[in-house]
Amino acid sequence: MASQASAAPPEPLRSRGLHLDIRAVSHAFELDGQTLAVLDDVSFELEPGESLALLGPSGCGKSTLLRLVAGLETPRSGDILADDAAVTAPDPSRVVVFQDPTLYPWRTVSDNVALGLQAQGVLDHNGRLRVVQELERVGLAGFAKAYPRQLSGGMASRAALARALVNRPRLLILDEPLGKLDSLTRIRMQGELVSLWQERRYSALMVTHDVEEALLMADRVLVFSPRPARLLESIEVGIAHPRRRDDPRLITLRRAILELLGAA
Amino acid sequence: MREPERGALIWAPVTILVLLLAWQLLVMLLRPPAYLLPDPLSVFETLIARISLIAPHAWVTLVEMLLGLAVGVSGGVLTALALASSALLRRPLLPLLIASQAVPLFALAPLMMLWFGYGMTPKVLMAALIIYFPVASTCYDGLRQTERGWLDLALIMRASPLRIMLLVRLPAALPSFCSGLRLAAICAPIGAVIGEWAGASAGLGYLMIQANAQMQTALMFAALLVLIVFALLLYAATELVARWLLPWRAVSHR
Q: What pTM does this model have?
């Protein structure tokens, strides 16, 4: 690591996006002795560097799918392959950003971002530089020593994002990451998430309730049925970034998706 | 949450002063016999006049409280850690811990005396026992109720069980530990004095019993006063420990 002196070029931030293959995945929970089916024979692929939005009624099982992809739970049936290897356990190459920023309140912003490296036992000098770099990238350099409870909602989301990105994920899993933000902050964060993704080229899998958000951010939108979630349709967005929310193509797609969801 | 506490620092002494004044006036007006209710001034006079008698007893009780606190808190924390980290220990120990909360610990004081004599040991054990259960159960609750997202995140980072304990579960349980410590500080004087009442040759509890038997009520109140001061100082110390352990709680909310 001696060659990583300050004069050396920074480590490449671009990661090789992960290829994800979901094959006939079904899942269910036991609830008070009853079996509650949440995912019904879901299959799709995520190409390296692609960004995919999962859209569906709330409580339909999308977040469960994310937990399965992260390796936090194992599906009842079907296979989840990351670069052709079965997902059996969580891994820092597949990082989740949760709806609640779930920052550790007892750690400063900088220590929160450093957690992943510390947990893996790789928080060296180089790691600390990465922490500073990510904090700068999300615009929180001035808040490195602040505690999470001193942050606004938007800043907490940025901190959670930096905490994920510092691990150089090859797949970023976003579980309604902007769900609790006010609308202005939300619009700004949508733009920032897209530019981060364009910069780093990781694969991205995002759950959202917001049709417009999905169409603004993702390459492809997967529409799911109410629980148990079945894949209804895969919609290619095909509009170059930056997208405008009043783009007529986007409005047409939005209407089509709302019809699929039975809301139009 | 901090506001009322800051206020307490100003208002508590004022309230105490007013109450003492009322007590003084009451005694001056009603003139009860001194063996029933001495006035606060004569309690202070007795405290100063007989400080050489009171001080050694106060020292004994203070040591009992502090040793009891040390033994009870470390025992409670270790139990909580064992329960939280091993299902093998949890299954037999947890029901026992819950059931033992129902045991009237004060009733054990004579037994402690029988087993360990008139010295300091039974008092320390009594204080430690009373402290042990609330500390063990609050700490265990704190270790058990770690927010799922915090754990998930550490799992995604492939943290080992030891690192998850050190980086997530322990710090997440610190607020609970501090509540346990506060309870312990409240229980410590009770345990020491109960232990002394069951049979002792020294200590503030012993002094109170002696003074009571000799109708030296002012001396009894003086001993009680010292005990109250100890209890308050102990409580204030736990508050300082809590602030040191939880610096993030003191920062202002956004």
A: 0.83
